[in-house]
Every structure is written in structure tokens, then in C-alpha cells.
Design goal:
CATH topology of one domain: Beta-Lactamase
Number of helices: 13
Organism: Panagrolaimus sp. JU765
Number of strands: 10
Helix content: 25-40%
Protein name: Guanylate cyclase
CATH class of one domain: Alpha Beta
Strand order of the largest sheet: 6-5-10-9-8-7
CATH superfamily of one domain: Haem NO binding associated domain
Radius of gyration: 23 Å
Strand content: 15-25%
Structural class: alpha+beta
């Protein structure tokens, strides 16, 4: 696991039980002091689980208790280091916060720490009894108690409410990934609020009736150049003009399977019904590369350098038989623009990523000249 996990476990334990206790843990594990929590080092899962197992054994508690404690600590730690404003601004309700949990986790992994880790996935829905049902997916079994700690702490610190969290279901499933088949743990949590507070569930608003949408297909393509419509077989029905510079021309045709054009990096799903389960999740697609015969390299050479990634959201259309993917190129700096050999015009005028790029560049320049 990323060194950040080891470092924050150290901070949690040393604050709660003292640095002497931490030294006992290291002695028990035969870890050399100073090597156990380098932020930029990647530690094996075996080392991380051994660390938590040893802490639990010395405290005479279950490993799950330590992981739940760690989940709660992570929220407090995140608020203490300056992310309080972000967490407070995510959503007006706990359900709204949890619905955005997947996107927050993806942002922290890929943009804050540039880790590109295969982190957990989340999906939130409302139960028939008015509870929140939270689905947690991970390729690392046994870490689900972290989620319990996170949910309880977010409810208490941000929404000032008490919640009860229980496990409704727990199962394992073999999933196809780009590294082969892997076992994914799927834990379903039921979250209830005994006090029935207003900031627990989202209010469902009715849509305004504005009549038929007066927009032509050509206008839609101009406004949303990066959009794809697929059918229940995940084959392309329509694809935006923005992909022309990034995808081989022969693939930009109706009926081509989506997974022939793109690798779905996040989440790891590739069937229509599976995609529908993650509609509140960030979808990251990367243009597939394919071997090109040397004699045809000039003919099929893409205009840009590395295969482009796109980040966006899937929407289920009213007929229930089609999905719309709206996205933007996943570029966060001018350095990445040079890497992918693209210009600012890959973003539409209304795309907020233009402002993000300029703000990031200004921040980098200010940091450089300090």
C-alpha cells in the first residue's frame, strides 16, 4: 500500500497510545525505525496487514476495530490538514456525500497523490425503508471496516448526526481486469439514522416541464464533442466529433463495440447492466492501442502522442436501452498537454477544465518562484 497509509496509521496510534507503544509495535514486527512509513514508498499488502495485526494483538482487540478506527481518523486528519472546506462542500446530506465518495477517492488517488492506484469503488442508493445502502468494491479483502469508520465520522463531524452502520451482504466475485482475473470483495452496508434528521437523505425533486428540447443533432454534437451513445450490447450508436483526433478512423463507426475503442480503466465494468450500477461514478476511458503493420504506420499514425484518457459520467437514457457517456480529456497541466501533443482547444469553451489548467499552471509558477 501507499506510504501515506503507514504514515497515517503511525499518527493515529502515536496520538492515541503514545510513541512508546509504536516502538513496541516496530520491535514486535522487527521493522527498523524510520523505514516503516516513507510517504513515497509502496509497501506490500503483507507488511500493512502485519502492521495492523500486531497493533490489534498488542491492544487485545480485533483487526477490524483498528481498521474502523483508522477510517474515522482519516476524516479528522483530512480536515486538520486543510481539506475541511472541500469535505464540507461536497453535499448538503449524508446520502449526497456518499454518492460522491467514488469521485472524491478517485480525485485524491490520481490528482492529489498522482498514485494511479487501483483503489476501491463505491455506489450509493436509497433503501425501501428510507435507509442508505452503500456498496463497497475492493480488490483488497478485509478493509471494509475502514468504510464503517469513515461513514460514522463524516455523519458526526460534517452533518452532526448519529448513524448506525450494519453489513447487509458480503460476497466475492471474479472480475476481468487488464492484468487478468482478480477476486473482488463486494460489501453492502445499510446505514440508518435513528433520529430521522433532515440532512440524512436527498430530497427527490420533480423535473420542470419545459416542453420538447429544441436542439438539433448537429448543435448537440457542437456543444458536446466528447459524447458517446451505446446500446444494450455496448455497441456505439453515436460518437462525438471530438474523438476524431484520438481514435483510429475505422473505429469511429456505428456498431463498433465500446471496448474495442476504449479500455474502461475505472470502474472495472464492461457490460450494460454493470455500467448501470455505477451511474454516480466517475468513468475513465483510455483509447486502446493496437499493433499497426509497419507498412501502414504513416497511414494510421494518430495525430497525438500517447493514447488519450477521458473522464466523465454515464447517463441512462429514458428508453432504458441506451447509455450516454459525456466526458472531457483527462489533462490537468500544460506538461500533460505537451505529453499528449494537444492544445487548449480540445476543451470546449464551457468546460471548467480550462480554468483548472490555468489555475494549476499559476500555482506551479508561484511555487517555483517562492
Amino acid at each position: 500500500m501507499y506510504g501515506f497509509v503507514h504514515d497515517t496509521i503511525y499518527q493515529m496510534i502515536s496520538q492515541k497510545y503514545g510513541k512508546e507503544f509504536w516502538m513496541r509495535v516496530l520491535k514486535e514486527l522487527k521493522f527498523e525505525k524510520g523505514t516503516e512509513r516513507h510517504l513515497n514508498q509502496y509497501y506490500s499488502d503483507k507488511d500493512t496487514f502485519a502492521l495492523v495485526d500486531t497493533i490489534a494483538a498488542l491492544l487485545e482487540v480485533q483487526q477490524s476495530d483498528i481498521w474502523e478506527m483508522y477510517g474515522a481518523f482519516l476524516i479528522q486528519y483530512t480536515m486538520d490538514i486543510g481539506w475541511n472546506g472541500l469535505l464540507q462542500s461536497v453535499a448538503p446530506t449524508l446520502e449526497g456525500f456518499l454518492s460522491n465518495l467514488d469521485g472524491i477517492h478517485y480525485f485524491i488517488d490520481h490528482f492529489v497523490y498522482k498514485a494511479n492506484l487501483n483503489g476501491p469503488g463505491f455506489r450509493c442508493e436509497t433503501g425501501l425503508d428510507g435507509s442508505i445502502v452503500l456498496h463497497y468494491f475492493s480488490y483488497r479483502p478485509g478493509l471494509y471496516p475502514i468504510v464503517e469508520g469513515v461513514v460514522k465520522e463524516v455523519a458526526a463531524k460534517i452533518y452532526k448526526i448519529h448513524v448506525e452502520v450494519r453489513i447487509l451482504n458480503q460476497q466475492e466475485k471474479a472480475m476481468r481486469t487488464f492484468g487478468g482475473k482478480r477476486i473482488q470483495e463486494h460489501v453492502t452496508f445499510g446505514i440508518t439514522n435513528p433520529d430521522k434528521c433532515d440532512n440524512f437523505l436527498e430530497e427527490k425533486n420533480n423535473l420542470l416541464d419545459n416542453g420538447p428540447l429544441k436542439i438539433t443533432e448537429a448543435e448537440f454534437h457542437k456543444i458536446f464533442p466528447y459524447q458517446i451513445v451505446i446500446d444494450r450490447e455496448c455497441k456505439v450508436v453515436r460518437i462525438g466529433d471530438g474523438f476524431i483526433d484520438h481514435v483510429s478512423p475505422e473505429l469511429l463507426e456505428k456498431g463498433v463495440p465500446l471496448t474495442r475503442i476504449f479500455e474502461i480503466l475505472h470502474p472495472h465494468v464492461d457490460h450494460f447492466d454493470e455500467i448501470c450500477e455505477f451511474l454516480n461514478t466517475v468513468f475513465v476511458l483510455q483509447v486502446r492501442t493496437k499493433p499497426i503493420p509497419p507498412i501502414e504506420k504513416e497511414k494510421y499514425r494518430p495525430k497525438h502522442g500517447e493514447p488519450m484518457k477521458f473522464k466523465g459520467q454515464m447517463f441512462l437514457l429514458d428508453d432504458g436501452k441506451h447509455l450516454l457517456y459525456l466526458c472531457s480529456p483527462q489533462i490537468t497541466s500544460f506538461e500533460e498537454m505537451n505529453q499528449f501533443e494537444v492544445k487548449m482547444n480540445v476543451f470546449t469553451e464551457h468546460d471548467p477544465m480550462r480554468d483548472v489548467l490555468l489555475a494549476n499552471e499559476q500555482r506551479l509558477k508561484e511555487t517555483k518562484f517562492k
